[in-house]
Amino acid sequence: MDLRTGFAAVLESLAPGLPLDDARWQALAPLLRLQRLATGEAVLLQGQQPQAFYAVVQGEIEARFSGLDGQVSVLETMRPPRLFGLAGFVCRQPSRYEAVALRPSVLIAIGPAAYTRLMDELPGFARALMQEFAGRFAGTLGLLAASRHATAAERLLLGLQQLDQERGEPLPGEPGWRRLRVSQAELAALANVSRQTVNEWLGQQAREGRLRQAYRCILWRPPAPGAGAAAPFTGS
Q1: What phi, psi does 139 have (nearest 5°)?
Q2: Is the peptide bond before 232 cis (omega within 30 degrees of 0)?
Q3: Cα-atom radius of gyration of the chain, to the nearest Å?
Q4: Which domains does the chain have, with CATH numbers?
Q5: What is the separation of C-alpha 97 from the centre of its chain, rounded to a whole number of angstroms?
Q6: Distance of alpha carbon 51 from the chain centroid
Q7: 182, 215, 216, 227: least buried by Cβ within 10 Å?
Q8: Beta-bridge partners for 106
Q9: Which residue intervals define the domain Cyclic nucleotide-binding in the entry (predicted)?
Q10: Coil, strand, or helix at residue 121?
């Protein structure tokens, strides 16, 4: 994975067609840094102010939060081409989570000079970045509202739909089905339910033919808009 190929994939995920021509790349490349992480190595530390934000271009990064009681909660598992760390970096505030490599990974570090050049000189980048994080914020607000008014099944379905929008991919040879790489711990944290509830709900959905569980992923058929949370579910 070379720097330009990795960064081009990140831009393509934000907004296809952003004009990263040779002249712009030659000015930007010295300001970016390719960073390799071994399994278990951290790139963000909870409580420290980020000096850059990052794009995952290879591997898998886990965002997790440690409470005062020492309990660790998984917030998200991030795979290419995912951006993270922008809020703390832009607001100049300590990170609220740590980011740790689950396997050997490659990141692109985007520091102050690169951020300024991208925002000021790459047409369409600022608008694409705003759209990306507005979408994440809207998803978070939806889950917050659901945590107060929705059942566990509705929150789990909403969480799956949000994750599917971010990282889901079509399942070859099976029209209407999608592959979504997600752990039960991540889904539990997102929907604010227990791991046991996630396991029970996934089992029910599998029995009803709405999804299949595979190694480190879920194969599922998203419901039509307005279909709701399907069959009634009573979980822990």
Answers
A1: -65, -40
A2: no
A3: 19
A4: 3-133 (2.60.120.10), 151-236 (1.10.10.10)
A5: 14
A6: 20
A7: 215
A8: 36, 58
A9: 20-136
A10: helix
Confidence of residue 117 (pLDDT cuts 50, 70, 90): very high
Q: Residue 182 in contact with residue 218, Cβ under 8 Å?
A: yes
User: What sign results for the dihedral spanned by CA atoms 133, 139, 141, 147?
Assistant: negative
> Contact 153/210 with Cβ under 8 angstroms?
no
* Per-residue pLDDT tens over the stretch 132-162: 877 766 655 555 555 555 688 888 888 888 7
Helix 152-167, helix 195-207: angle, nearest 10: 80
Contacts of 42 (CB under 8 A, 6+ apart): 98, 99, 100, 101
d(CA 191, CA 56): 24
Q: For strands 169-170 and 83-84, give the pairing.
A: unpaired
The C-alpha angle with vertex 150 and arms to 145 and 156, in degrees rounded to 5, equals 95
106 by DSSP, 3-state: which? strand
Q: Which residues contact 122 (CB under 8 A, 6 or more apart)?
A: 18, 19, 20, 24, 28
* pTM metric for this prediction: 0.62
d(CA 218, CA 210): 10
On the question of pLDDT at 40 being above 50, the answer is yes
- Report how far residue 109's alpha carbon sits from residue 89's, in angstroms, rounded to the nearest whole number: 11
